[in-house]
């Protein structure tokens, strides 16, 4: 049984040998270990993939022993994930279909180890895509006056379908703290600029106006401050004076879908940890 | 004789055929033509490389005829550059030597078609590099109280040596309008960030703080507003959570020197035009 | 009416002014001109986008006049394409769906100015994708003994649907000269390596074996020699020792679909010309 | 005292916990751990950076204990490197100066933690660069008839100056097994193509001929088979039909110097291990 453990705790000598010794003692074979120390903050991060021969019932004991022998003495925040459990991902979209198609075609060939219980949108334009892939679609319109009500409906659906994390695949609405607080570091957005440049609305227009020679896309966890959450993944492409804003948008679509998909895969594979509004991305 | 003509004027039908017809009539063979229309501004840009068999005395006539037959009817701003004339480039540096070495080693093997009459610095640290390459070095210290005097000295030297353009190869001083106004779109800076992100001081520290996954460098013409001039060239490189600020600085040096050198070569080869605080970069 | 003219001919002085003069005289406004001279071969290439106010009936005259006044004196090979005519593209696939989904989702949002009369495959696996997008699907199985017959069937369909060009979107069969000869420089393939490295079968396995640090994808026109036709577009991504062959394949899919789509768009927009087994790609 | 340990051995369960337990027991604080398993070959690789408070005399004991307690039971090949010892690097060059200047300017600002006892060349053209940086220069001409003698002289110098590794900074001579056998995986070459494409002479000419859209550079350890040794680092840049072979060469110089410098830094920082003609590059 493949198991992934994520740990962060105050840095001190001996953590690695203690943790690896524990895994070995419990009959686990360490497949991959990656660790990082934030020297300024004095914080230690670790991701461990192990293979245990034991059966699932033993996991509960393992967790308790880990808690007693390691987590408490080292003041760890930690989590253990079984390879056999697929996280549940909700997709929020508006009218653009490129990120949605990209994610669904990956899902379709088994590239993403998730379940997708539903797709939600404030418009009905993309219902046909949901139908193409036979995934339930919920149309939850949002207007200024109904925003609160709409978010209540979103929370209901998220709860009902036991959603683990949300992907905003070009969902053109601001998500408020009402939803964010229920999914801290569990909402992944794609912003169509090389953040922190051009945060907010119409980044391609702003990039065009400034005359940049490179445009980008940024996937990040959503926090209350707009486009200011922990960055998961970024990529860029070159542009020239000959490109119009429309060209920026077209070239940008390719960036957006690739960058968002990479971020989603990192999240699914438990390769991200968040600290101080920054991410540790394990290899 | 190789000749490069740069033109910008209000866009209208027939410019290209008029200009190419003129060149052909005067015995020139067009080697390369590149053109751009800024549709929003309604401005036409063109760069023409031609080969004339005529002798230099005829250039004067050619210019007069171009002025009468084309420039005036089409309201052109234009310039004609002879391939035989090398522009004179002054290098301003402070204490970092990577951009300086990179430019001088290119100059040394004939990659840059310029003369370098002198290197100027507010410190004497890099005098040894100037000596290695046997280029005159002027130490012009700058303090708050002597800034005005220092810029006077700079202008004297620039005039005395008939400098055509200035490269700030990590010159860590703000250049004021006193100098800029004498060299409009003739001062090339390298900023160690992906502008417009992280303008101003300590961009690597700011990038580290924000947790970006990509850092960049930007070469631009210097205008009065700090780090806001027309962008000539940009490039980026990936970073991870594992990189310290010191790593950013080290990786950034490679970006800075390559991006600055590319921008300098574009300028030398008359491949840049500036309009509305943006550049047209000809291919 | 937007019109694109492609020209190649022996290089000589005066072509550009003759052509641009002709366009101007006929009432056309040149929107974009791009030209290239292959100095070794002494061949001139040009792409001209013009806007004519005239009606379609006049196109016939225009073509005749161009032929008489320009094409014959300059020994041009040339073609004229009206912006109003969408080329017809056939898609050939096997079992992988990533390139197919990518192209169809672009088609779906109007990014590709083509018609797609049908999708053809040697397997029936991807019929469901054709159905999702409501495009006719033909299953034409290929075995060693039926290859000839299968290609006859392909040619029939290509002729019946008046196909202009074919895209091999991971079609895992070798196309013979029987088909190629009918579509010279009109069959676009995507090869999953950075050609000319790793031509032929299983390029990711070969790249893994060699221990490269970068993998690539190459889109090219199909010629009789396998993976040796004129290259249209290439791109690469980094890999490390930690990536397995399976990782190469997964990372490679993103390259393949983006590179193929770029090549298809260049072809659709008449931005490619082939000469001496190489391409000129207009900007 | 900073210490780096490199290990490779047959893969088996428990290695990581044994090694990290050993380091901890001996009073070392693990700063960084990176590990890799080549699953096909069944080989385990590890790089450990540790900080020991102990004095240098204790290192000898440490090594003996590591040998007894870990290396023998696990059949490890291993090495221990003290951060205080700078390796000695010899530079071999011919006539091109760009890689040489790039390495020396990095050395000059302390970016490379090495000593450079000498520069050697088969020509005297670059003696002036050695003089600029006040590094001994040896001119060892090589002709067909004197190659053997020249390599004897090289080996003498390498031995006399206790050289740890050699960098071929565009040294345009084939190095024979006579030298290679004395420096296995200790000779770093830069080849000006994206290997395995265009191995051997004149790769830019071959790339131009093939019409590629991307060119590359590859740094690798030298083995007897030409340009076929373990790849350390690669990078690429785009080219177009408009670039001449001369342009390829100019653009390539920037690639060559950056790629070679990265490879040299990886080697100096003990981040490379070689196995089965491939490299493991630690992060």
TrEMBL record, chains A, B, C, D:
Residue ranges of domain ACT in the record: 4-87
Pathway where this protein functions: Purine metabolism; IMP biosynthesis via de novo pathway; formate from 10-formyl-5,6,7,8-tetrahydrofolate: step 1/1
SUPFAM superfamilies xref list: ACT-like, Formyltransferase
PROSITE patterns the record matches: ACT
EC code: 3.5.1.10
Domain of life: Bacteria
Keywords, ordered alphabetically: Hydrolase, One-carbon metabolism, Purine biosynthesis
Cited InterPro entries: ACT-like_dom_sf, ACT_dom, Formyl-FH4-Hydrolase_C, Formyl_transf_N, Formyl_transf_N_sf, PurU, PurU_ACT
Active site annotation, chain numbering: 227
Catalytic reactions of this protein: (6R)-10-formyltetrahydrofolate + H2O = (6S)-5,6,7,8-tetrahydrofolate + formate + H(+)
Job description of the protein: Catalyzes the hydrolysis of 10-formyltetrahydrofolate (formyl-FH4) to formate and tetrahydrofolate (FH4).
Family classification: Belongs to the PurU family.
HAMAP family xrefs: PurU
PANTHER family: FORMYLTETRAHYDROFOLATE DEFORMYLASE (PTHR42706), FORMYLTETRAHYDROFOLATE DEFORMYLASE 2, MITOCHONDRIAL (PTHR42706:SF1)
Record protein name field: Formyltetrahydrofolate deformylase
GN (gene name): purU
